[in-house]
Design a protein that fits this description.
The protein is 34% helix and 21% strand. The protein contains 11 helices and 17 strands. The protein is globular, with a radius of gyration of 21 Å. Bound molecules: zinc ion.
């Protein structure tokens, strides 16, 4: 119903948002699951070839040699130079793609500022290399910068005991714990060393680029202090991973903060963004294609987590471990490397239900946590 309601609204706006550009993709607006995609739902610009999306704003898609096979980066032009938003992994041919963009697209103008929306390697991977190359500053929120520094410092270390206990409590067997140990310390492998200082981005502050203001909007849950950039004059929202059209961003509990409730933050900040940013923006996401329909998408994501929380609550009529809860939350079977992400997501939903006092948790003599409905918690 929500999807049908919003469909009409965006048709006219999209026509206004289309700009002409030399390298622009064939414009074929497309409606898909309640969202409008000005360049089509499967728009895939050629790797490393910027496309103009608005005056002074360019979209460039970088390939990635991982299962999520691309990232969208944004280039903002000003008189004195370029501002980049996100950087891609330091992996594969991404440095060569950047070098081609420097010479063939950016012309004489240097990069004057590198903004990273958040700490994940596909966003921050080449920030150190780019800022050093151009002698410019890295702009990030403080928690993202410091957390990234801390996590990259784990590269090559052995998994700490507290992390092993965390996953044992979730129900991992010895084989699964062994796999976790083998994988630990990989976070920083596709990140060039970050600079030693940075420029902090604060929620609500504005940055002036090309005589237009971009407002910083912080969202928590997918990462600690994720930055989005909203330009009212251009009706654009650079959303990073905070708002994606099809993928639901991962919201996880990690061993560093086992009692955290990132899902609570995720739900409240998505609602905050829906309340504060108008619906008539073109959303520029880090993955998949630009789209209109911000409020519909945020509502879809919030409602789907609420449904998942209810399904999980129903699943806990009898005591279960975190890993026993996968069938309540995931359609596909969880195996191999997916188990880490699935466990983090499941713990985020369990901690949210604990925070709402709908379930209880008991640790048994083997250090394994069992979750169960509270008898007095009525179904919502
Ligand atoms: Zn991310």
């Amino acid at each position: 119903m929500v999807e049908e309601f919003k469909q009409e609204d965006h048709r006219t706006q999209i026509l206004l948002l289309i700009h002409t550009g030399k390298n622009m993709l064939q414009n074929q607006p497309e409606l898909y699951r309640g969202l409008n995609y000005p360049w089509g739902v499967k728009a895939t610009p050629a790797p490393g070839e910027p496309i103009k999306v608005a005056d002074g704003v360019y979209w460039v898609r970088f390939p990635m040699p991982i299962s999520l096979d691309h990232i969208n980066l944004w280039l903002l032009e000003d008189d004195e130079g370029w501002t980049l938003v996100d950087t891609c992994l330091d992996l594969g041919n991404s440095r060569e793609i950047w070098e081609r963009i420097f010479t063939e697209f950016m012309g004489e103008k240097p990069i004057v500022r590198v903004i990273c929306t958040h700490l994940h390697p596909d966003h921050v991977g080449l920030a150190g290399w780019l800022t050093e190359h151009f002698g410019c500053e890295l702009w990030m929120s403080r928690e993202e910068f410091l957390m990234c520094k801390a996590m990259t410092a784990d590269t090559g270390r052995e998994a700490p005991d507290v992390a092993i206990r965390h996953y044992r409590a979730a129900g991992y067997n010895e084989e699964q714990l062994k796999r976790y140990r083998e994988k630990f310390g990989n976070f920083g492998r596709a990140i060039s060393p970050l600079p030693d200082s940075f420029r902090r981005l604060l929620d609500g502050e504005t940055i002036r680029i090309n005589d237009r203001y971009w407002q910083v909007i912080i969202g928590r849950g997918h990462s600690p202090e994720h930055v989005c950039l909203y330009c009212p004059a251009l009706k654009l929202l650079i959303s990073g991973d905070q708002v994606l059209p099809k993928i639901t961003p991962n919201v996880s509990v990690f061993p560093t903060e086992p009692a955290g409730d990132p899902l609570k933050e995720w739900l409240s900040d998505n609602a905050k963004i829906r309340d504060t940013i108008p619906d008539d923006v073109l959303v520029l996401p880090a993955h998949e294609a630009p789209f209109c329909g911000l409020h519909v998408r945020l509502t879809q994501v919030i409602e789907s987590h609420e449904r998942d929380l209810d399904k999980l609550f129903d699943h806990l009529k009898e005591p279960r471990r975190a890993i026993d809860c996968f069938p309540a939350l995931f359609k596909r079977e969880i195996s191999g490397d997916l188990i880490g992400l699935a466990t983090g997501e499941t713990l985020a939903h369990l901690n949210c239900l604990l925070g709402r006092r709908r379930i209880k948790r008991r640790r048994d003599e083997n250090g394994v946590d069992w979750y169960e409905q509270k008898p007095e918690a009525s179904p919502k």
